[in-house]
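Question (not urgent): is this output format expected?
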Amino acid sequence: MKSVQISLQMASQVKTFVSIVQKYTYEIDLRSDRYVVDAKSILGIFSLDLSRPINVEIHSDNCDDLIEELKQFQK
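Got this back:
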């Protein structure tokens, strides 16, 4: 499992993020404090506190291509 921290400030960023992660077959979760949601769920993402950084937990060790695509959301 690999983890990166991102920030999703606007609804358009959430839409772009979901379209990116849906291309990958492995499980991807978002963790904010004690809450964990499926990264492929727009409704789940909007249930998080988006004013704070979010941890992306990727349940695969072969995910460098995804991490590269997520760099646009990293602070």
